[in-house]
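User: Please write out a complete single-protein record containing the residue sequence and its fold in token form, without commentary.

AI:
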Amino acid sequence: MRDVHRLQSVPTSRGSGSVLAAWERFVQGEDHVPDVRPLVAISWHRCREQYRVDPHLTRAPVAVAKPDHTPEQEVVFAELGFRAASVAHEVGSLGGVVTVTDATGRILAEWGDQATLARAGESRLAPWFCWSECAAGTNGMGTAMEAHGPVAIRGAEHWCRAFHDWVCAGVAVRDVVTREPIAVLGICCWRNPLPESAGGWLANALTMTQYPLKRRARDSGAELVAACAQARAHSGGALAAVDTAGKVVIADDMASVLLGVPACTPAVDPTLRWNPGLPELIAAVRYATGQAAHDPDWVGSTQIFARLADEPTSIGFRPVFSSGHLIGHLVSFGASDGARVPQVEGPADARPAHPRPTRPRAGPRRLVAVRGNRLVLLRLPEVSFAESRGNDVWLSTDQGRLRAASVSLDKLDGELADAGFLRVHRRYVVNLDRIREIERGLKGELSLVMDGHAGEMVPVSRRNAPAVRRALDL
């Protein structure tokens, strides 16, 4: 796989000349970073602009607090620990260490030869210390939590100069429903290249660790469908089942209209569930998930603007558990029982009298893209559509085709849902203002002809076609 080869294709010398020079200029405020990989340039941008990590930090900070871990997370930690211990001798013989961190970047355990472990301890590359990007800057473990697939950070690519003698790689194991990181498996070597097998080993560990997570998620989807069917027998209102990320697993006839998803069609597989494109609903689901995780008896309600609704609609949330594990919620339209779910504040025009998505909020909002070794800041009107291709997201813009800094189309979709963009296909999010024509195929399928000299066409999936028609008032 492409990410595996990346682990072996970059020079490993400490300064690497041009990389170190680019780092020095970037730390001083320049944005031009020649000879620096886009993944690293984007990470540096987060460290400098968003996290404001001191590039002259000499040691990783102490983890602030010990977070609670679910039984599912404990299973992941145990599996990764088994795999780390199995290669510790190979890595240790090269002057390296193997680490397992939790979702906060806190190192839980470490394996390796005693000399390297002692050296690692000087930088606090050790249990109970935090290596997230926001704490320790660009590094193999922390940057893996911000990306998808194995990540390697070498020498001067580290944001903090004190870590330039290390070569590190990591891969994040993610929740297959929420896509949030659960744990990270890492390899770090002192002034030595990574083992040739590092990329394949990390990728294999990821596959084997996530396999039971995917199986459990499919089982949970089936249980949500069953719970919805059971509740439907005792309910007269619109009813749907959503997972903990706010994706729709199944919706009855009435709920499907309000959510803009197919009716009575189970979406058990977590990769095939429907995104309703309602930011208020997704925010409310996430709040409900947090409350129910601490109080299994919690129920709540709020109001949202559903599809085809001129007035806010009351919805109720009832958590669904499986073997003590929260798997999602039943959403009842018209219900107002339980605790009040705080409403997410939005712009004044976020409550339209018709289902057309809202336009951009007042004030500048930009997307970050990459052109060569430069970061490009784009205004939203400049972007025609976003396309997911492999592990990357590409933007079709007035400045040409650019790779987005975001590594997830789902994340980008969520960020732009209230800004006049719409998910029209599992691989595409489009700017509604940039649609020039709609073309219908021989079998009724829709394609969108985007404005611009190229007249690029974007396919519309069957399940998203109703939402497109509503958004364009067709």
Q: What stands out?
A: Confidence is low (pLDDT under 50) at residues 1-6, 8-14, 345-364. The CA atoms of residues 179 and 411 lie 9 Å apart.
